[in-house]
Amino acid sequence: MDQQLRDHLNTLFTPYANREMVGELKEELFVNLQEKYSDLKSQGLDDLTAFQKTIASIGDIQEILDGSAPPLVHMDFSMKNLAQGDFKDVAVLDGKFNSSNLRKADFSGSNLVNSSFKSSDCQEANFVGANLSGALFKGTSLKSADFRESILDKTEFRNSDLNHANFDYQVLKGTVFQYCSMKRTSFRGATFHQVTFQCQLKHTDFTGAIMDKLTYALLKGSKADLSNVTVR
User: Fold this and answer.
1) pTM for the complete prediction?
2) Which residues face 73 on adjacent strands?
3) Distance between CA atoms of residues 134 and 115, nearest Å
């Protein structure tokens, strides 16, 4: 039955063979379909009925590729070479992008709530407009990454390289920056609400930033230049 599932997926994806990330998505769907088929069999369905119900659950491939389908959950893109990968406007909740090459990958406009990027190379990655609420970046290389207009509610950056990263005019709520390298990181015009910093920030740009008293108090002890910020 596994081969029948693979053959069916290959047929469905044939028109989209040139699209980015088709191979990864097809493999993830195959694993999900195997689990679906096994579950239906355990309910007492015969082979043919279980197979028909399984393939009927796939939905519209075009919608999945365009990101208009219901969000994918728990997809695992770990330990893969996805440099310059096209993840624009995708929806992957609780996804795993650990120990992968994601240099210059495009995540703009994507929904990546609660996703994990541990020990990955995300240098120059584009996260503009992405929803990264609850996401975890730990031991991640994010040099020159662009986070403008993204959602960073309770996002955690731990032990990561954020040198030259761009957070200009960003609104940060409950975001955590712990033991990160932040040389020439830019927060120009950003707004801070209960943001935690445990980093050396001597060369971080906070020009025009607006922050609450708690965030300001934390930053004062980190050698940050706060001469051009507003406290509210």
Assistant:
1) 0.71
2) 93
3) 7
